[in-house]
C-alpha cells in the first residue's frame, strides 16, 4: 500500500494526476486513449480522492513517474524545484557563455594577429622590391 506524505489535510490524488498530466503536456483525450478508457472516465479519475493501485500503476507508467511520485506530488514543491533547477542551469550557462566568449575573443585576436603579421610581411616584401628596383637604376 502506498503512503502519502504527512501534511496538513488530505489532498485528493485526482488533481495530482491531472496536474502531472498537464505538466507532461498530455491532453485528456490522448491520456484516455493511452489508458484505453473514455475521456469522461479520465475526468472522473482526475476528480477522485482515491484511485485503485492497478489504475494508478498504468497512469504512472504513461506519465513516466512512479506511483509514489504521484501520491506524494506537491505542485508548490515542484514549482520551487523547477525554479531552483532553472537558476542552476542559468548559472551554468552564464559560466559556459563567458568561457565561450573568452574562447571566441582569443580566436578572433589570434586571427587578427596572424593577419597583421601577413600584412607586415607583404609590406616588407613590397619595400624590398622597391629597394631592389631602385638599386638597379
UniProtKB/TrEMBL annotation:
<protein>
    <submittedName>
        <fullName>Helix-turn-helix domain protein</fullName>
    </submittedName>
</protein>
<keyword id="KW-0238">DNA-binding</keyword>
<feature type="domain" description="HTH cro/C1-type">
    <location>
        <begin position="17"/>
        <end position="70"/>
    </location>
</feature>
<dbReference type="InterPro" id="IPR010982">
    <property type="entry name" value="Lambda_DNA-bd_dom_sf"/>
</dbReference>
<dbReference type="Pfam" id="PF01381">
    <property type="entry name" value="HTH_3"/>
</dbReference>
<dbReference type="GO" id="GO:0003677">
    <property type="term" value="F:DNA binding"/>
</dbReference>
<dbReference type="InterPro" id="IPR001387">
    <property type="entry name" value="Cro/C1-type_HTH"/>
</dbReference>
Amino acid at each position: 500500500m502506498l503512503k502519502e506524505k504527512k501534511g496538513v489535510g488530505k489532498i485528493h490524488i485526482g488533481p495530482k494526476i491531472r496536474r502531472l498530466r498537464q505538466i507532461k503536456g498530455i491532453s485528456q483525450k490522448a491520456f484516455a486513449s493511452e489508458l484505453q478508457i473514455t475521456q469522461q472516465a479520465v475526468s472522473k479519475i482526475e476528480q477522485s480522492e482515491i484511485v485503485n493501485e492497478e489504475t494508478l500503476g498504468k497512469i504512472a507508467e504513461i506519465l513516466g513517474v512512479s506511483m509514489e511520485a504521484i501520491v506524494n506530488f506537491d505542485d508548490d514543491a515542484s514549482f520551487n524545484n523547477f525554479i531552483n533547477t532553472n537558476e542552476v542551469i542559468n548559472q551554468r550557462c552564464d559560466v559556459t557563455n563567458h568561457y565561450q566568449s573568452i574562447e571566441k575573443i582569443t580566436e578572433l585576436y589570434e586571427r587578427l594577429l596572424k593577419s597583421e603579421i601577413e600584412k607586415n610581411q607583404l609590406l616588407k616584401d613590397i619595400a624590398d622590391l622597391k629597394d631592389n628596383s631602385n638599386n638597379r637604376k
